[in-house]
Amino acid sequence: MIHEVDEALRALLTGSGPEASGVEVVFDAPTREWAARRNAPTVCVFLYHIQEDATRRGSGAGEVHDAEGHVVARRTPPRWFELTYLVTAWASRPQDEHRLLSQVLGTLVSTDTLPEDLLTGSLAELGLAVSLDTAGGGHDGPSASDVWSALDGELKPSLGVRVRAPLAAAARPAAPPVTEGLVVRAGRLGSDEEAAPGRRLRYEEVGDPGTEGFAGPRERPPVPARRRRGRRQP
Which InterPro entries would you find in this protein's record (predicted)? Predict the structure, then answer.
């Protein structure tokens, strides 16, 4: 799921124009050594925090159908995770970095959910909305200054981007559909004699409404007439 979110973000930023103008979109950690090797304008989208959104955890199981509508597997609800990215712009001059970062900001804040045509793999299969929050507050993860300290890098203007994406649960194959009914045999209990050939109850047989697939309605025995109660004559 994480790599699918990465590809969606890359496609989103690429479509906004930076890569078309010679700007590279990467997902590397912006350390000092990495920054020293940069020789072209770059947008760095660094994933530094992953946390589950426990408020969206569901229960039960859903059905997976094939092209003909048959149930082929059962799958528990997906688990939702928050992916937090540190987005920075790198160029030879601060003015160019600010211009590039402004272009990235304009693209991200105008997108509340990742477009469906950019989703691939399990994200596209689930068909659920993947939300995008840019430069918002309330992040539970490490602050940007803590991240820069851990990377031993120089503090730069950055955007905090949080993506809420579902992680598909493993699907368990379902048993094939029942096509034949039970076989009913009659015999004496405790007898050594072989039971008589049984009768198979097939599902294509149609009887009374509500008795489809069985041997038809059972006739009810007649109800005996009730005797009138009264005093016996002497």
Answer: Pvc16_N (IPR025351)
- Residue 13 CB burial class (10 angstroms; 0-12, 13-18, ≥19): buried
197: enclosing H helix or E strand:
none
CATH code, residues 2-173: 3.30.2000
Model-level pTM?
0.68
Render pLDDT for 44-101 as a digit per residue (tens, 0 to 9).
Answer: 999 999 999 888 887 666 676 777 777 777 777 889 999 999 999 999 899 999 999 9
What the block records as the tokens of 211 is 């008795």
CA distance 195 to 3: 62
Order of all β-strands in the sheet with 171-173: 62-65, 71-75, 171-173
The pairing of strands 79-90 and 42-52 is: antiparallel
- C-alpha pair distances (Å), 97 with each of 87, 103, 147, 172, 193: 12, 10, 20, 49, 93
CA distances from 87 to 13, 22, 43, 60, 102 (A): 11, 18, 7, 37, 11
Is 102 in a helix, a strand, or coil? Answer: helix
Q: Pull the structure tokens for residue 178.
A: 């029942």
Q: Taking the domains of the chain in order of start, what are their residue ranges? A: 2-173, 178-187+195-218
